[in-house]
Automatic annotation (TrEMBL):
Pfam families associated with the record: GTP_cyclohydro2
Keyword Cell division belongs to the record: no
Cofactor details (free text): Binds 1 zinc ion per subunit.
Protein name: GTP cyclohydrolase-2
One GO term (biological process): riboflavin biosynthetic process
Active site: residue positions: D141 (proton acceptor), R143 (nucleophile)
GO molecular function: GTP binding; GTP cyclohydrolase II activity; zinc ion binding
Entry's Gene Ontology cellular component terms: cytosol
EC number: 3.5.4.25
Species assigned in the record: Streptomyces toyocaensis
Length: 219
């Protein structure tokens, strides 16, 4: 199939940014959401925002959730991602309105599924999550939040109450034009399988996890 060209034989300009493609009702065990699907023209990723209730422009309860197949789908206790996703969905329903932006392409803090599994194998041998990524020659955190800001702006959101323990998410949203009126902790009780991972997030990635102080008994 031949590629379409514009006038004078020139190719049409490549699209950039994020484009809303579809809205669909999505009843879940947490409540009835609207799944708003987007295409990220810059990276080629398909993205989705789960919207509950009527969103105003300001102080919208919001979660930017990085895709985590092992935690979100398989219930892995290596991390707290699945529990955080469930808690965020319950929180926006309890609030009466809010949005969970589910960011595909963020697996393993942006390194991809197979690389994440390799990093997990290294962690089983004694490296922490930061050391494992570096040992593989990969960035510690390769995530970009421009698409999340674009999705929120498309939804008419100017400022958010951000459910996150990660200060970098707040900084990224502000940098991309979405104000953060408040950062709301999303603290999940740790277990023996993820306590080392969580402590590394606090000590080496600056996550705000004060509840870890109460679980010194876990190995």
């Amino acid at each position: 199939m031949t590629e379409k060209v514009g006038v004078l034989g020139k190719k049409p300009p490549r699209r950039t940014g994020v484009e809303r493609v579809v809205n669909a009702p999505l009843p879940t065990v947490y409540g009835k959401f609207q799944a708003v699907g987007y295409l990220d023209h810059d990276r080629g990723d398909e993205q989705v925002a789960l919207v509950y209730g009527d969103l105003g422009p300001d102080r919208v309860l919001t979660r930017l959730h990085s895709e985590c197949l092992t935690g979100d789908a398989f219930g892995s206790q290596h991390c707290e991602c699945g529990d955080q996703l469930a808690a965020a969905l319950r929180a926006v329903v309890a609030e009466g309105a809010g949005v969970v932006v589910y960011l595909r392409g963020h697996e393993g803090r942006g390194i991809g599924l197979l690389a994440k599994l390799r990093a997990m194998a290294l962690q089983a041998e004694g490296l922490d999550t930061v050391e494992a990524n570096l040992a593989l020659g990969l960035p510690v955190d390769a995530r970009d939040y421009a698409v999340a800001a674009g999705m929120l702006q498309d939804l008419g959101v100017r400022s958010v109450r951000l459910m996150s323990n990660n200060p970098r998410k707040r900084e990224a949203l502000v940098r991309h034009g979405v104000q953060v009126a408040e950062q709301v902790p999303l603290l999940i009780p740790p277990c023996e399988s993820n306590i080392t991972y969580l402590r590394t997030k606090r000590e080496r990635l600056d996550h705000h996890l004060p509840h870890l102080d109460a679980v010194a008994h876990l190995s």
